[in-house]
Amino acid sequence: MTELTSFTLAEARDALAKKRCSAVELAEAHLAAMEQARALNAYVLETPERARAMAQEADARIARGEARPLEGIPLAVKDMFCTAGVRTTACSHILHNFVPTYESTVTAQLWRDGAVLLGKTNNDEFAMGSSNETSYFGPVISPWRRKGSNADLVPGGSSGGSAAAVAANLCLGATGTDTGGSIRQPAAFTGIVGLKPTYGRCSRWGIVAFASSLDQAGPFARTVRDAAILLRSMAGHDPKDATSADLPVPDYEAAVGRSVKGLRIGVPKEYRVDGMPAEIEALWEQGKAWLKQAGAEIVEVSLPHTKYALPTYYIVNPAEASSNLARYDGVRYGLRVDGRDVTEMYEKTRAAGFGREVRRRVLIGTYVLSAGYYDAYYLRAQKVRTLIKRDFEACFSAGVDAILTPTTPSAAFGLGEKGGADPVEMYLNDVFTVTVNMAGLPGLSVPAGLDAQGLPLGLQLIGRPFDEETLFALGQVIEDAAGRFAPARWW
Fold first, then answer.
1. Is the pLDDT of residue 7 over 80?
2. How many domains does one find in the chain?
3. DSSP string covering 327-396
4. Residue 10 domain boundaries
């Protein structure tokens, strides 16, 4: 059974096609692994009966020679995606036992292509966090541990449950959402591949909204090829989402293994931040060497407004969050705490339903959007955002094909180690990732090495708008050179 859970998605697809295993056997192996790994708290809801039914249908289609692109592939879904008839809470108490009557476009396309739903994964409440410690259902525990230590580590956030599930072989792939690094950062922390596609590449319809101009769905997988396979099913135009791009979806898998000879890879000098560990600098140098050996040209570039990205992001992000979360008031769905009148009902419901980090961001967002401060904060942040976007446009118009940076400023840290007294300490984990969301660009994190304590580190590739194919080609070069990384089982 463990052999079945150690397949890559591509290997499982081939095994099913050649009938070396059945979809039901594949699903049962993963359901058993999930049961044995509950200490990780990666899933907030398991759907074994639905998984078995979907797997049986997959086997029937394979037997008839009607297999679809993801036929019988067991996947996990972040609890930000609405799933018809399956509880969806965004890991917040305020969406207590909310069961949608509709399916998000991204997950509907996965089921259309034959994938099997194993369950909903844990995430930071409303995707607000960098460590998956703010979930109403408790923190996710990383499957990785430091050498010689039994201390629990965070898997990164906000999509920590999806990342942990993929890294621990509890699914063959998973969906995530990325608002400021919430796919790429946990992918780096857990030694897997995570892609934040171009804004508009995947529909946001049916995904619980956090910051609408920043949110984007994307895949987690154990290999670059697997991520490419998943993106092809997840991507596409959706008339229900006004921000969805009406562009054809390429065959991303065909780009994996493509030559990168002659590509110009930019290395931004502004990403050499003060206090960056020597291990991260060395990893970055190694990544440059690998790409150069594969025939790419490395050039230094400048993104001068990078230093303003983090403060700008933490104005735009809470502002949009406060607007989106205004709908949670106890009237139509979710938690309701009664009061003497409607105003007190609102106050009590939101006080009981929202966790500390969500309340903090709602307060900040409401403040920066208020009449006396809108121009000073939100309007100015939007102007700086435009300058950040122009920095990237200048690089790409100068002939740069992609940009290489570290994904995170460190490896995974321990539960409770950061953000207790000073939330800004936690926010600094997003220093290398937020620019990508601000500019709406695609970003791919690929595992590239281990630190001195045996924890995975990732490299990030940033691409031109809607050019995920180049990122997959470059990501494969890094994966081939670095190898793959898996945690030693302790759970």
1. yes
2. 1
3. G-SSSSSS-----SSHHHHHHHHHHHHS-HHHHHHHHHHHHHTSTTTIIIIIIHHHHHHHHHHHHHHHHH
4. 1-491
